[in-house]
User: What shape does this take?
Amino acid sequence: MTRVQHLELLPLHPLGLLTEEEMALVEAGAACDELLARELDEYQEVAALLALAAPPLTAPSSLRSRLESPPPASAAGLQFAEEEPGIFVHRASDQEWTATPFAGVWVKQVAVDEARAVATSLVRLDPGAEYPKHLHTQDEQCMVVSGEVWLGTVRLRAGDYSRAAAGSRHGRVYSEHGCTLFVTACIHDELG
Assistant: This one.
């Protein structure tokens, strides 16, 4: 595996988005290359901090019963397997990228919370692809997994995170060289 290939896979490692074979290759590369090891450590630190970025919430009393019951066999078309008691997993290899109406923009839905009208997705922009301007009807969270992307006039690189507040609007989402994003957003955001 080339150094460039290692660098492309590094940000995906701490998020658990690699196959077992890819994880082993990244770990082997980091074991032999001090710079790769440092970058992997930095990505792991960023991934660990993501949980701290959200404000604390008080869980509703009904949450316990919902957590103790398994998800439906197919939630929003996703298949989940109970790999350990209470741990439900959807593997990246279980789903193909789906084309959007926008040329070069692809999506893999990770989860959909219909009650809150929120979808969590991996979004891939091919080199030169763009997603149009839109209004955020709820808070949107975005982390760049790989590559770089412009959110209006703001450039984000691998490992960068942004939160767009409800009611905010940013210009087009554009990637010159391509990128993969981890996005949580309202399914009712308004284009234009």
Summary: DSSP finds four helices and 16 strands in the chain. The two ends are 42 Å apart (CA to CA). The chain has two domains: 3-53, 92-191. The longest strand covers residues 140-151.
